[in-house]
Specification:
single chain, alpha/beta, Spore Coat Polysaccharide Biosynthesis Protein SpsA, Chain A, eight-stranded mixed sheet
């Protein structure tokens, strides 16, 4: 289990750094925001436009906002474009490599259409959030050279209609991911939300990772990073409150299966049945 020393050293709050400090620390490095999206026309425009206004047009902390559209059947592509993002359809990025629909696939393919030395990932379905998510995630990466990957964590309310229940969101995290970590990867036990969709990573690390094509990309990245870089390569940042559109239990079951499969594979436990494919490290793809 991770000790108090790691927790104290590597757990931060989003306002530990000012925008001016981060812009100075950026020192000419390019930073990309990547938003994987599938049928998120209702929310992706707000995500893009607010971040662009605060962190591109005002302080230039971000150099590009790129939305990767993963086989949407709604107006996600057009809405994101109109909001000011550069939008790519995942299936059209490196078509020579084929395509596997899924969140992880969209994130993996983003490496071929972005330029940032630092990559920030943000979900497209955010409802209760603010633009400080991005500078909060960048803080450790821009100011601490040993940090390679940063996870966000937050209060996650469960929103059902007009009812908001504090701290009851994140069902897959609490029922699947955290128990798995306690049993198989206790060194990651100090991470509050291992499945958080808001995280940042150095490109030099991300391009060396094997990436599950579905929902297990975040957990796989954590395990593989600690194995290759050590625990002090990780940091986490308290981003406050985050709410999003909740999925049905049927969808959560599929997500849980993918996370279980990726975790068990990394623990050396054989599984049976269909397992989501993984993309190889991008550095090995010609």
């Amino acid at each position: 289990m991770v000790g108090e020393a790691w927790f104290d050293r590597n757990t931060h709050h989003w306002d530990d750094w000012s925008l001016d400090l981060l812009f100075e620390a950026k020192a000419g490095r390019a930073v990309s925001l990547v938003v994987p999206a599938r049928n998120e026309a209702a929310t992706v425009g707000d995500v893009v436009s607010r971040v662009r206004g605060a962190l591109v047009d005002t302080v230039a902390l971000l150099d590009e906002i790129v939305v990767i559209d993963s086989d949407s059947t709604d107006a996600t592509y057009d809405v994101a474009t109109d909001a000011g993002a550069v939008v790519h359809r995942a299936a059209e990025i490196r078509s020579d490599l084929g395509t596997v629909p899924g969140k992880g696939e969209a994130m993996w393919k983003s490496q071929f259409v972005t330029n940032g030395e630092v990559m920030v990932f943000m979900d497209a379905d955010l409802l209760d959030w603010d633009t400080h998510f991005v500078p909060g995630l960048l803080g450790p990466l821009l100011t601490r050279p040993e940090v390679q990957l940063v996870k966000g964590f937050y209060e996650r309310p469960l929103v059902v209609g007009e009812t908001v229940v504090p701290f009851e969101g994140g069902r897959v995290t609490e029922l699947v991911a955290r128990p798995l970590i306690r049993l198989l990867f206790p060194e990651l036990g100090g991470l509050h939300q291992p499945l958080a969709g808001e995280w940042a990573v150095r490109r030099s690390l991300f391009e060396t990772l094997s990436v599950p094509t579905g929902y297990a990309v975040e957990l796989a990245a954590l395990v593989d990073t600690v194995r290759s870089q050590g625990l002090d390569a990780l940091a986490q940042v308290d981003l406050g409150t985050r709410a999003h559109r909740h999925q049905s239990l049927r969808d959560l079951s599929g997500m849980s299966t993918q996370i279980l499969a990726a975790a068990l594979a990394r623990a050396g436990v054989p599984t049976h049945g269909e397992v989501e494919p993984e993309r190889p490290p991008a550095v090995s793809v010609t």
